[in-house]
Design brief:
single chain, 265 residues, alpha+beta, eleven-stranded antiparallel beta sheet, two-stranded antiparallel sheet, 17 strands
Length: 265
């Protein structure tokens, strides 16, 4: 759920969920960005883009899985995003390159590859002062380069990413916190599962969570990539790819722990 105005978000949460649950749900808000094609009235967020060559430091090996090169899907320029993210960006990773295995890349037998392995996706940071454009090696696919504008929004979690101990709810009326959010907030869903987003919360629109939790709390959402016919990628029927990272690794700037999760209808 996306909001352009944080005060309106708080008001709507308390109106829909009640004073206590509304405050608890609003406290889960995170800052993020809605990504769209850059234009004259919507400038690109630094060097952020979808597709195109990677922006890697010299000598950085191109990531692969079992000898199959991953495909570069996006680059985020976190220096351009840092002012809005504030303390929600605890380190300054510079440029973030997002890679994942691409089943359209020719390979003799994908059943021999562990495509569920964390190595099937990669997020590689790079120093903007040293990064150079790096073309994908054969047979990895290269997608058209699209500079992107990052519109600042405040995001609330999808109902499937809310757990029972996150908000108070009436157990006589709802089977869980998810039921409460689904019933009372459903018409405010921005349907962002059909779009590209960065940071904030993912929007799954499916009956499963994306921001898995561990002892340090919910995973941090880095990037949501929707099916995009113009760029030439997709992940199943109305599929979406989500890149996330454990909260502790994110706080330490260890993007080697990031991984991609695909969801489709």
């Amino acid at each position: 759920m996306e909001f352009d105005d944080r005060a309106s978000m708080h008001r709507l949460c308390t109106e829909r969920l009640g004073e206590q649950a509304g405050r608890q749900f609003a406290a889960m808000a995170r800052r993020g960005f809605r990504l769209s094609r850059a234009a004259n009235d919507a400038p690109a967020a630094g060097r952020s883009r979808l597709g195109g060559p990677a922006l890697l430091e010299p000598g950085t090996p191109w990531p692969e899985l079992g000898g199959v090169p991953l495909s570069l899907h996006a680059v985020l320029d976190t220096d351009a995003l840092a002012v809005w993210l504030g303390d929600e960006l605890p380190t300054r990773p510079g440029l973030l390159n997002f890679f994942s295995i691409d089943p359209d890349v020719p390979y003799e037998d994908y059943s021999k590859l562990d495509t569920w392995s964390p190595e099937a996706s990669r997020v590689i940071p790079a120093d903007p002062a040293r990064a150079i454009e790096t073309a994908a090696p054969e047979p990895a696919r290269s997608f058209p380069a699209r500079p992107v504008h990052a519109a600042e929004v405040t995001m609330l979690p999808d109902c499937w990413d809310v757990h029972d101990d996150d908000v108070e709810f009436d157990t006589d009326k709802h089977w869980g916190a998810t039921s409460l959010i689904l019933a009372e907030m459903h018409d405010l869903n921005g349907n962002t599962a059909g779009g590209h987003c960065a940071f904030g919360w993912p929007d799954t629109s499916y009956a499963s969570e994306v921001s898995y939790r561990d002892a340090d709390g919910p995973a941090v959402h880095l990037l949501q990539l929707a099916e995009d016919a113009e760029l030439g990628w997709g992940w199943g029927d109305a599929g979406t790819m989500y890149f996330t990272i454990p909260a502790k690794a994110y706080a330490a700037g260890d993007f080697s722990k990031a991984e991609a999760i695909g969801r489709c209808c």
